[in-house]
Amino acid sequence: MKKNDPTKIVTGKHTVMSYLTVNEPQVPLGGGTPKYSVSLVISKDDTETYNKVKAAIKAAYEKGQKKLQGAGGDVPPLEALKTPLRDGDKEKKNDPVYKNCWFINAKSTSKPGVVDAYKQPILDASELYSGIIGRASVSFYAYNVNGSRGIAAGLNHIQKLHDGTPLGGHGRPEDDFDDLDGEEEDFLS
Question: How many structural domains are present in the chain?
Fold first, then answer.
């Protein structure tokens, strides 16, 4: 039986995975602990996911009151804090992937589980690239680090449902070559 955690959500099934780093963790700019990460691109038409994210952020804010306290014991209002739900039309104006979309950058220090549409683990790293379409399990939590306070998104798991257009200038090798149509060349002669 699943425990109902109001800070945890699963995105809708048409979420685009951008800046996908789930095969090997990467060291953040400026150094630090290597992390797995993804930018979850959610259409503004997906109001169900948007509402779940807003509710989970609010739940994380309520749950994290003690952590969010400043030196004087004050807790800023949620509207004054940094939150992970961002507007692609404002922050990524020149990127067509983010047009009419929200996005959430989610990270984890531990490797997220990655499964296919049938909940089977994806073991072939080439199947996981920026541009795949699916769902993500994300948990929201409060943070207070060196005076910077807010709500962040932790990446739990990803479910790849469909291939998508590869992002970032790299395609898949199987898309670059035509079929040989039964022609086999003798490369040794």
Answer: 1
Question: What's the mean per-residue pLDDT of the chain?
Answer: 90
**CA-to-CA distance for 181 and 159, rounded, in angstroms?**
34
Q: Does 139 reside within a domain? A: yes
For the chain, list the strands marked E by DSSP. Answer: 8-10, 15-26, 35-43, 85-87, 101-108, 113-115, 133-145, 148-162
pLDDT the model gives residue 147: 78
Token representation of residue 121: 């683990």
- Tell me if 111 is assigned to some domain: yes
* Domain housing 99: 8-167
CATH number at residue 110: 2.40.50.140
Mean pLDDT across 152-163: 97
CA distances 128 to 48, 96, 100, Å, are 26, 21, 24
